[in-house]
């Protein structure tokens, strides 16, 4: 029965108060997320503008491309930047994201060391604008933003990608968090279904509780061989406060806030999700239901961000 040690089996999950897909949709998403607010998070440009207006920190915005005729002018517009990231405003799952990390003559250098000629970059931009990567193939817009500089604490734990931190925020209270690390099998992307690692995080401290890859418990990064116990997220309280503040800004009661930790800028909001996935529970070896119910049961839910974070750290964190 050795294999049982390494697998989280379904009966263990149900005992932990695991939230399932149907209950998530009907009891939480439908009840707490007004449909009219979805566009705010489904379009990354809208999210960004909203965040900038509300004082939530996001990766600095360099440029926006909204029409085909603007494409040839992009080289001059970005002449001052050696590094940047281009992404479809309505993209998802990491599709269509171009990370440029330098220049060689008039070519742009990608993270895998291959280069793009000015014409190739223009073709890429033209395809994105036509909706190649957008939800439903609708015409899209392109965001050009600061390239996140991976924080030194992740040096031993990332494979060609920026780790991100998902915080699930319910009615403004952070209820669960996980760190996602890219691996060679996830192609440098931090998506769990592509083989990235999910580490549940102790809400009180920002220290990992448990690590899983493709549903299996693991103890070290498969590419770098480093074990996870040295990880402790810096600036943890501020990170939770930034995530919690997204509730007032979006009006979404059940919200996944994806954050990154930039070497110089600290915690930043990368994107938000109105239909956050359920695997955060597997990474934490804990169910969401008891936590969501604890927040719902609060007689007085409206409290300042700092108080909400304190409540969650005390109630849902481990001593
Ligand atoms: N500004 C950035 N700097 C560096 N890497 C980025 C940046 N934006 C996105 N990425 C990379 O692309 C991945 C997906 O980006 P994200 O904005 O979350 O879009 P998606 O909706 O496609 O998941 C991130 O996990 C990260 O690895
Ligand atoms: Mg993402």
Short description:
The chain has 319 residues and is an alpha+beta fold. The chain has helices at 10-15, 21-32, 38-42, 44-54, 74-77, 118-129, 236-250, 280-284, 289-296, 305-316, and strands at residues 61-65, 84-88, 98-104, 107-110, 115-116, 142-145, 164-170, 173-181, 197-201, 208-213, 216-217, 254-262, 266-273.
Could you explain the architecture of this structure?
The chain is of the alpha+beta class and 319 residues long. It has 2 domains: 2-42 and 151-316, D-amino Acid Aminotransferase, Chain A, domain 1 (2-Layer Sandwich), CATH 3.30.470.20; 60-145, 2-Layer Sandwich (Dna Ligase, domain 1). Helix content is 28%, strand content 23%. The chain has helices at residues 10-15, 21-32, 38-42, 44-54, 74-77, 118-129, 236-250, 280-284, 289-296, 305-316; strands spanning 61-65, 84-88, 98-104, 107-110, 115-116, 142-145, 164-170, 173-181, 197-201, 208-213, 216-217, 254-262, 266-273. The strands form 2 sheets. It has a 7-stranded antiparallel β-sheet with strand order 11-10-9-8-7-12-13. Strand 12 and strand 13 form a beta hairpin. Magnesium ion binds at residues 258, 271.
């Amino acid at each position: 029965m050795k294999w049982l040690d390494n697998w989280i089996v379904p009966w263990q999950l149900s005992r932990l108060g695991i939230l399932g897909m149907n209950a998530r949709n009907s009891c939480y998403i439908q009840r707490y997320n007004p449909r009219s607010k979805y566009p705010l998070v489904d379009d990354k440009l809208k999210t960004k503008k909203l965040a900038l207006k509300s004082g939530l920190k996001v990766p600095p915005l360099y440029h926006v491309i909204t029409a085909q005729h603007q494409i040839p002018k992009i080289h001059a517009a970005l002449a001052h930047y050696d590094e940047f990231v281009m992404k479809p405003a309505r993209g998802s799952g990491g599709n269509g994201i171009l990370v440029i990390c330098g220049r060689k003559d008039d070519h742009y250098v990608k993270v895998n060391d291959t280069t793009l000629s000015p014409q190739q970059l223009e073709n890429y931009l033209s395809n994105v604008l036509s909706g190649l990567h957008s939800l439903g193939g609708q015409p899209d817009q392109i965001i050009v933003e600061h390239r996140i500089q991976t924080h030194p604490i992740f040096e031993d734990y990332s494979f060609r990608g920026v780790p991100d931190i998902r915080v699930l925020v319910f009615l403004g209270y952070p209820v669960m968090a996980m760190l996602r690390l890219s691996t060679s099998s996830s192609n440098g992307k931090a998506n769990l279904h592509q083989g990235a690692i999910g580490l549940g995080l102790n809400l009180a401290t920002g220290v990992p509780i448990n690590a899983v890859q493709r549903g299996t418990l693991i103890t070290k990064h498969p590419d770098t061989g480093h074990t996870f116990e040295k990880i402790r997220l810096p600036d943890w309280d501020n990170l939770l406060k930034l995530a919690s503040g997204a509730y007032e800004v979006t009006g979404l009661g059940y919200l996944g806030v994806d954050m990154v930790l930039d070497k110089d800028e600290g915690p930043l909001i990368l994107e938000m999700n109105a239909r956050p996935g359920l695997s955060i529970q597997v990474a934490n070896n804990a169910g969401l239901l008891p936590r969501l119910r604890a927040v719902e049961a609060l007689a007085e839910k409206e409290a300042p961000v700092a108080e909400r974070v304190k409540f969650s750290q005390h109630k849902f964190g481990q001593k």
